[in-house]
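Regression report. Comparing outputs from two consecutive submissions.

Submission 1:
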Amino acid sequence: MNIVSGIDMVYIEEFGEQLKLSEDNFVKRCFTTKEQNIKETKTLAGIFAVKESVIKAYSLAPGSWLNIEVDNRNSGKPYVTIKNIDEKVLSQDVSISHSKDYVIASYTALIE
């Protein structure tokens, strides 16, 4: 067993500018079909930060965003589903926090 973790922070204003500049290209490259239905910039920035923290935790190839889907449990707590990883995830925890200007996300998992 091993513990993996990753963390990422996103500047919301810059992220919003990237969304506007790239039109749908950035969204289609980074977000699953389900995630693309979310329109709030702050929420998408949080999802992107989670994806980046997962990529860091597993040392995945850059651009692996579509292999990671972020969703919420009924309680509102976020969780991720990851495709195409070799490790067996025994337990995971995701945390997202927003301020006025930034969003930060962390991912920790116990893997086998």
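Submission 2:
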Amino acid sequence: MAITQTTCPCRRIPVVHLPEASAFMVIIAVHDAFLAQLGNPTPEAPPVSDKILQMVRYLTWLVLLSGVCGITYAGGRFAWEKWQGGPLDSPKMIAGAMIGGVVATSAGTIMNAVVG
């Protein structure tokens, strides 16, 4: 395809018709010239991110504290069941609390691996 030139009938201005590849190159050149005018923006935290991070830290402490309380309660119940001679249901509670503690403690590492 060659570049062709015609005259616009309404204004008598020459109009240049470019092939598709040349038009694409012109668009890329205009795009690059526009991006050259923009500065490199510095990243900035959102306005409420500090409050959200503080809430997440509080929730982390709450989860860890509830895990410790759960293990302590299950241990006391295990001793009570052993002393009374009844069926032992509390080892399941201890195992569940320990597994929950491991998941809660490693949640940050898991999220960093998934997101990052």
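Expected: both submissions complete independently.
Actual: both completed, but the second showed a warning that disappeared on reload.
Relevant detail on submission 2: The mean pLDDT is 76.
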